[in-house]
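step=encode ok
step=design start
structure_in=
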């Protein structure tokens, strides 16, 4: 009986903590929205009136936001305004908008060349988010949609995006996170994933051999930003019935050429040597 009561109390404490965290997250967003409407800054008293929060709670939230760079305090005028981190996040959003606009014509070019579905994705945590898609004309093709999220370790796009993360960021993202198995082909061990990502980084492309969707193979390559970082990944998805080696190689060459052109449009001056090599790739795609 006592054990049951203890377990119940512990569960209630966890639920209460989660509820408090959700409320705090909502209040943080409300603060940012209010400050966005005040380009000249807002005094604490006005912000407190709008938020209807105890002064101590508002002070605590503003201290965290200021420390993280999302809010700035003008020490002379004693007003709060949006900080540089909000601008940086806005710029990241605009880069993704520019990315899709620049990528779509080149994705359409690839589909016209190989007649297989082409997708563009970016990384969010340990998931890849689909930003754009151009379908092929085959009746049997990949069924997916823009905005969908998939676990990165189980997709070609995701493995490319993970492979080009700094090691410390990669480790941090998977800290305590299990690798979900979607079928017998999915990578299940983090140590195995690290070996695969080394291989992806070396060759400049990744393969999804039915690791998320049975009967589907994908090849994927990185898309580089102006500073040489990987902004997104581009893939071609081919049902198993058509995914023989020569077709996969043709798809890999086509998306590598498209990625080079997208990266040029985004401001990169010199193509990545791995992508350049892939445009005339002669090796096997499915080799381990």
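sequence_out=
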């Amino acid at each position: 009986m006592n054990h049951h009561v203890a377990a119940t109390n512990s569960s209630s404490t966890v639920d209460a903590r989660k509820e408090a965290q959700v409320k705090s997250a909502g209040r943080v967003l409300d603060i940012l929205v209010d400050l966005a409407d005040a380009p000249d800054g807002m005094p604490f008293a006005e912000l407190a009136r709008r938020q209807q929060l105890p002064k101590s709670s508002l002070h605590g939230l503003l201290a965290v936001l200021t420390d993280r760079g999302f809010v700035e305090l003008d020490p002379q005028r004693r007003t709060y305004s949006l900080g540089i981190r909000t601008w940086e996040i806005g710029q990241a959003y605009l880069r993704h908008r520019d990315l899709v606009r620049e990528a779509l014509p080149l994705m359409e070019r690839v589909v016209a060349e190989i007649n297989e579905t082409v997708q563009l994705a970016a990384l969010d945590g340990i998931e890849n988010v689909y930003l754009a898609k151009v379908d092929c004309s085959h009746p049997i093709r990949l069924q997916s949609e823009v905005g969908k999220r998939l676990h990165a370790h189980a997709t070609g796009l995701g493995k490319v995006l993970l492979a080009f993360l700094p090691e410390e960021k990669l480790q941090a993202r998977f800290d305590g996170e299990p690798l979900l198995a979607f079928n017998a082909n999915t990578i299940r061990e983090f140590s195995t994933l690290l070996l695969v990502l080394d291989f992806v980084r070396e060759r400049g492309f990744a393969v999804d051999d039915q690791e998320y969707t049975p009967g589907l193979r994908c090849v994927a390559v990185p898309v580089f930003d102006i500073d040489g970082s990987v902004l997104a990944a581009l893939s071609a998805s081919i049902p198993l019935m058509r995914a023989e080696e020569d077709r996969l190689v043709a798809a890999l060459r086509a998306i590598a050429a498209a990625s080079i052109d997208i990266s040029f449009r985004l401001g990169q001056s010199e193509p990545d040597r791995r992508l350049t090599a892939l445009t005339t790739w002669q090796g096997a795609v499915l080799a381990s």
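step=design ok
step=annotate ok -> The mean pLDDT is 85.
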